Amino acid sequence: MAQDLVFVPLGGVGEIGMNAGLYGFGEGRKRRWLMVDCGVTFGDQVTTPGVDLIMPDIRFAKAQGGALEAIILTHAHEDHYGALLDLWPQLKCPVYATPFAAGLLAAKRSAERDAPKIDVRVVAEGSRFPVGPFDVELISVAHSIPESTALAIRTPAGTVIHTGDWKIDRTPVLGRPTDEERFRAIGEEGVAAIVGDSTNALREGISRSESEVAESLAGLIKSAPGRVAVTTFASNVGRLRAVADAALAADRQVVLVGRAMARATDVARELGYLEGVPDFLSPDAFGYLPRNKVVALMTGSQGEPRAALARVAEGDHPEVTLAKGDRVIFSSRAIPGNEKAVGRIINKLVEGGADVITDRTHFVHVSGHPRQEELAMLYGWIKPQALVPVHGEEVHLDGHAEFAKAVGVPKVVRVRNGDIVRLAGGPVEIVDNVPTGRMLKDGRVMIYATEQTIPERRKLAFAGVVSIAVGFNERGEVAGEVSIRFTGLPPRDDEGTLMPEVLRDTVLDCLDGLSRQKRRDAGLVEKAIERAVRGELQTVWGKKPICHVSVVGV
User: Fold this and answer.
1) What burial letters (b/e) apply to 305-332, b meaning 16+ CB within 10 Å?
2) Is the pLDDT of residue 339 over 90?
3) Please, are residues 231 and 331 in contact by the beta-carbon 8 Å criterion?
4) Distance (Å, whole) CA 526 – CA 467
5) What's the rounded mean pLDDT across residues 119-142?
6) Cα(22)–Cα(436) distance, integer angstroms
């Protein structure tokens, strides 16, 4: 069997978030592996009640043991590195990260109880280093976080470009622009395939620059008559810097509100990304500054219920309040699925008299992902032989595939999470698949998404729960009162009868229909009562709650 180069997405295909992929080089079971990114996606209270974080099922990566050489981080967004603290103990391989990503990971680790001590190896943008049989080069790309990189992964079978998240921005507020010169040079060497970002592949044209957003924000901050609050992703240090520069120009001071903001700016300041920017103030300074002298940078742009902006909107933040005439700028766009949560906060702010500005009415945000013209430019520089679209929902992946064909990429392979696709060393095609899925972080416990925990929890939220306890004496007669408790049921049925009476009558009628002999079988009695109660509630209410029955004394 010839040595080949393969790619296996474990997450991030058919979805936006939870990015994790494996590159394997070698012969079949003798392959050595490299993992790129290890991210999360976020749960919601409808589909995954009680679950905040969703992570890729990494059982295949874990099964490689010592053949997994390392994890390489393209950048420090949660959907690319947020699962490391939870999943790294299963892998225990070196993690390569740029200084900013390493700094954020260290800050995150220090804030979590019992966080593992990860073997992090700091590497600079533009560096090139060996990892087992792989030769890895970090290529600077523009994105909405410092030190974002694409990867050139070279092997004896061929070279692949893993784009990570990127765009073309000739004038970023901070950090390096996308390195056209390196991409062109690597393209001249020959590139077997690109594994590429599909987020904005349906959008025509080219993304606007962060410097243009900075200019717009400066005008909005300068013209505000009262307080200004700006919410954006804490990791978008270029945007934070733009707000800080605008505040300085408008003779205002910046107050940081939210732990994630403080964490990101501490790391950014350490690395020199906020050089020349005055120190930010803590939330307790907010109330003492004149209204026209303050800009608050707040977490909560995605409607997170425990974030600073949500608490301010609800009026329960201990140090920050907004009043009529204050301006709130959402320098962000709602991630799909977060629209309702963001809308609730906007409505609360408007109800309180705030002037709310979003990207629907003003130029306050640009995406960090490439549109079609940018994709065409990159493919022109690199001239890949094949493309594997990733980082997108099905509609984005399909659009990316069709666009790539239209601009002359010779081969496009659509994959799903778990597919093994050969990129070099043989025909470019799907050659096998591996087990994949989702892991849910439920409190401090990790569970498989296939467990019954979440379906049961959804059922509880939809129809509640009934608990019934029945005791029998030695003659098989009901001893004492039937104990009935319920949660989530209406107080009365459709005819106005109190629900405890409905349940009690149903239980007693069921027991009357059982012979003394049958009453001696606790399991039979429990099933009969459960069936009767759920059937009666379906009739009088239209729903079947979860029903727990306990029988004692038989």
Assistant:
1) eebbbbbbbeeebeebebeeebbbbbbb
2) no
3) yes
4) 11
5) 97
6) 12
